[in-house]
């Protein structure tokens, strides 16, 4: 029986190739998109879960500040005082905004890395990082040595046994390698190829001063013994938390696997994902899969109901219900299996493109994850059961003899089919609104005034051991295409120093930038009040921005001091206009520009021209002025544009998925109009014989689809409005949700629907009525 059913199923597919292509093709495309999005969601949800016993690894969070940045010394203290904590380590993850150059001594070949970790030996125990080669029992042999990964060792030396080899970091430090460890897992919220020993104070790379106290704020990771009740340990530690310079008096534990998608933590330096993005992609995957299933079920039912006379013959000649169930189950299962295979082929072919679009590597092998296997198996089984049992249920309500009569068989008003069609159009309109709204917001954040002129503005990092600042500045200023140059430590997007306001009863943090006298001119930041820096101001004076003045509650700056903890503080000699030091996701912060000759970068304003030739001349000047040092630079406009990479990715992905959703919707509408035309072919013939015009017939066939679009628009508008309002909450500065966005989405949906159905309705309206009525 099975082979007979299989043979008949193939015959029915070949008999109607258009239907088979639309049915299998539409479902395969939707299923392939759902698989790709499922892989992305799986990857993002499994970050930091590749470490052995990751469930025992936690990061400490300051409960009051909601920040992981605490006094460096806390790690050692809590390990000594609480037996439940097996290992603890201070941890500073630095993802550099400009590349770090690494090379072996005696070689001119530089390798660029973006990430560095400063930590202690306990880090390797907490995260179960295996040591391949080591001079001592633990990876860090002394304060001035470095640990590298096997991948970096192979890049630099072509081998992994590289103990005691010397490497140069940014031509500033020459350090011996004391250990080689395995690479960190790819799917982590931090990564590096080089580790520095944070027990060396020079390698902590963070300092914060407030009220005369200076300390190194770092993250703190701990490994808690397996049988420990974390809630009880939290209560125990908060009863009398050890005294520390960061004034942390209560903590909470954050699972390492929760860090990547956490949205409530301030000062998080780890790589961050987006719960909102996962929710958006999960919704899109669900919508597209539902639309594909709806189309598949509709097409399948329509095809089966169109062959009712064949079914009647089978029943009349003795086919029992068991045979019919077996036949339909075999036919549907075959179709689903073919669709699934086609979907997998589409995924294999498009996975590189999808990985590039989503900016993350995706692997097909993840589909073997038990959870994904169960989910997709249940989906396929549900579709098979619905598609194979529904026609038998419908047919059981009718007298088989009617299937051979002249009168057409009617199946009611088919509210279910209309509902599903409205659902598809609603989903398409929501996606269109999301697409247009996201593009509008991205255009806004990329073109809005940041308070400084970022165009043709470049930052060049100065080597740490280089101090001839004036000569470097003069060399660059002498270039004909350089408008002006300025020295600084930090800048918009590159804040490296934070200080407290130190106002009793009015504490807030100030982002501080060390600047020279040309900083405001180079960045185009207006001086609203006060005077320009004088030579006598060097090291003793500063400007504050408008937001800082408001936070202090002052009406003017005259006679005011920024008391940052140093003796005498800094005299405030002016107020500058507000400017963004971060993306527009965040509000403008209080900023202090300190006239201080402690510089780490030179900022250059270029004139319009041939940028390639200008950069070539700059490189030559750099080689002459700072011989042997690697030139690391960053264009400010490129950097600030990169801050919206996640939103760019969302916008591009939603654009693509919106197109796919529209294609699936069009396939559904096409199937609906084809079925309508077939069902009403005699009615159309009679109307034409009685003088109906083509336009009247088309209007009759199309009016239901117009009504469905209107209903879908009414349903979609509030849903899309709510969804986009929630998404815009990620931005401190945002555009408005204009009415025309919704109108445009509705008109596009209506236009696409009419174009889809009008072609088929025109064919039906122009058909010779004799063909429909010749046997009546």
What Rg do the Cα atoms give?
A: 34 Å
Sheet-strand content, in percent, reads: 15-25%
Quaternary organization: single chain
Task: Specify the biggest β-sheet.
Answer: 13 strands, mixed
The helical percent reads 40-55%
Total count of strands: 24
Counting DSSP H or I runs of 4 or more residues, the number of helices is 21
Integer average pLDDT? 83
* Computed structural class: alpha+beta
Report on the structure:
By secondary structure, the chain is α+β, with helices and mostly antiparallel strands. The protein contains 21 helices and 24 strands. Helix 11 (415-447) packs across helix 19.
Features:
single chain; 776 residues; alpha+beta; 13-stranded mixed beta sheet; 21 helices; 24 strands
Could you give the topology of this structure?
Blueprint: H1 2-15, H2 17-45, E1 57-62, E2 70-71, H3 74-81, E3 85-104, E4 111-119, H4 122-126, E5 131-134, E6 146-149, H5 150-157, E7 166-169, E8 173-181, E9 194-197, E10 208-210, E11 213-215, E12 217-224, H6 230-239, E13 251-255, H7 275-306, H8 308-316, H9 321-357, H10 370-395, H11 415-447, E14 457-461, H12 469-477, E15 482-489, E16 497-500, E17 509-515, H13 519-523, E18 527-530, E19 541-545, H14 546-552, E20 561-562, E21 570-576, E22 591-595, E23 601-606, H15 611-625, E24 633-635, H16 636-642, H17 645-679, H18 681-689, H19 694-728, H20 739-765, H21 769-773
Parallel strand pairs: 4-9, 6-8, 10-16, 17-22, 19-21
Antiparallel strand pairs: 1-12, 1-13, 2-12, 3-4, 3-7, 3-12, 5-8, 6-9, 7-8, 10-11, 14-23, 14-24, 15-17, 15-23, 16-17, 18-21, 19-22, 20-21
């Amino acid at each position: 029986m099975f082979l007979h059913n299989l043979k008949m199923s193939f015959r029915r597919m070949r008999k109607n190739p258009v239907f088979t292509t639309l049915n299998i093709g539409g479902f395969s495309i939707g299923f392939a998109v759902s698989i790709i999005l499922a892989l992305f969601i799986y990857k993002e949800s499994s970050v930091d879960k590749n470490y052995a016993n990751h469930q025992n690894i936690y990061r400490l969070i300051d409960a009051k500040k909601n920040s992981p940045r605490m006094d460096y010394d806390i790690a050692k203290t809590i390990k000594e005082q609480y037996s439940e904590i097996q290992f603890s380590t201070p941890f500073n993850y630095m993802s550099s905004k400009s590349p770090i150059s690494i090379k072996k001594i005696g070689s001119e070949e530089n390798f660029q890395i973006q990430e560095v970790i400063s930590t202690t030996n306990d880090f390797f125990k907490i995260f179960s990082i295996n040591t391949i080669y080591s001079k001592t029992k633990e990876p860090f042999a002394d304060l001035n040595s470095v640990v590298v990964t096997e991948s970096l060792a192979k890049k630099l030396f072509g081998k992994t046994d590289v103990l005691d080899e010397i490497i140069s970091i940014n031509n500033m430090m020459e350090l011996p390698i004391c250990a080689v460890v395995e690479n960190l897992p790819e799917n982590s919220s931090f990564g590096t190829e080089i580790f520095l020993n944070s027990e060396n104070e020079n390698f902590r790379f963070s300092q914060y001063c407030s009220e005369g106290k200076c300390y190194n704020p770092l993250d703190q990771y701990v490994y808690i013994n397996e049988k420990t009740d974390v809630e009880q340990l939290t209560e125990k530690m908060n009863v009398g938390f050890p005294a520390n310079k960061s004034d942390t008096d209560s903590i909470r534990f954050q699972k390492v696997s929760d860090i990547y998608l956490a949205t409530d933590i301030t000062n998080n330096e780890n790589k961050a994902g987006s719960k909102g993005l996962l929710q958006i992609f999960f919704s899109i995957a669900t919508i597209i899969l539902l639309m594909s299933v709806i189309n598949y079920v509709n097409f399948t039912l329509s095809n089966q109901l169109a062959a009712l006379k064949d079914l009647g013959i089978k029943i009349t000649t003795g086919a029992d219900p068991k045979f019919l169930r077996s036949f339909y189950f075999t036919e549907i299962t075959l179709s689903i299996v073919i669709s699934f295979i086609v979907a997998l082929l589409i995924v294999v072919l498009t996975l590189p493109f999808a990985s590039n679009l989503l900016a993350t590597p995706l692997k097909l092998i993840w589909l073997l994850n038990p959870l994904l296997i169960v989910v997709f198996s249940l989906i396929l089984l549900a579709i098979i059961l619905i598609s194979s049992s529904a026609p038998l249920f419908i047919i059981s309500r009718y007298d088989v003899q009617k299937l051979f009569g002249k009168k057409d068989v009617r199946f009611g008003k088919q509210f279910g089919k209309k509902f599903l069609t409205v659902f598809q159009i609603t989903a398409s309109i929501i996606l269109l609104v999301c697409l247009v709204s996201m593009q509008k917001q991205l255009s806004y954040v990329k073109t809005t005034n940041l308070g400084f002129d970022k165009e043709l503005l470049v930052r060049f990092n100065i080597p740490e051991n280089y101090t001839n600042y004036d000569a470097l500045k003069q060399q660059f200023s002498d270039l004909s295409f350089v408008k002006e140059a300025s020295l600084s430590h930090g800048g918009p997007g590159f804040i490296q120093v934070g200080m407290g306001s130190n106002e009793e009863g009015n504490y807030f943090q100030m982002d501080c930038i060390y600047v020279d006298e040309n900083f405001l001119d180079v960045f185009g930041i207006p001086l609203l009040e006060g005077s320009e820096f004088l030579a006598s101001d060097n090291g003793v004076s500063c400007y504050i921005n408008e937001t800082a003045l408001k936070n202090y509650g002052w009406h003017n700056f005259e006679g005011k001091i920024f008391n940052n903890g140093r003796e005498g503080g800094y005299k405030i000699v002016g107020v500058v206009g507000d400017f963004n030091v971060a993306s527009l996701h965040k509000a403008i912060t209080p900023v202090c520009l300190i006239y201080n000759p402690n510089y780490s970068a030179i900022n250059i304003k270029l004139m319009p021209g041939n940028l390639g030739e200008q950069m070539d001349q700059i490189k030559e000047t750099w080689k002459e002025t700072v011989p042997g040092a690697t030139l690391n630079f960053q264009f400010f406009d490129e950097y600030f544009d990169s801050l919206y990479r996640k939103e760019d990715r969302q916008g591009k992905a939603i654009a693509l998925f919106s197109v796919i959703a529209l294609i699936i919707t069009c396939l559904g509408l096409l199937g609906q109009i084809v079925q309508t035309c077939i069902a009403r072919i005699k009615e159309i013939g009679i109307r034409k014989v009685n003088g109906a015009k083509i336009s009247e017939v088309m209007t009759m066939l199309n009016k239901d689809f117009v009504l469905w679009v209107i209903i879908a628009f009414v349903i979609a508008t509030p849903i899309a409005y709510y969804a986009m309002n929630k998404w815009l909450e990620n931005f401190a500065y945002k555009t408005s949700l204009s009415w025309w966005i919704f109108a445009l989405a509705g008109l596009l949906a209506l236009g696409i629907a009419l174009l889809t159905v009008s072609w088929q309705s025109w064919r039906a309206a122009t058909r010779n009525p004799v063909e429909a009525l010749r046997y009546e």
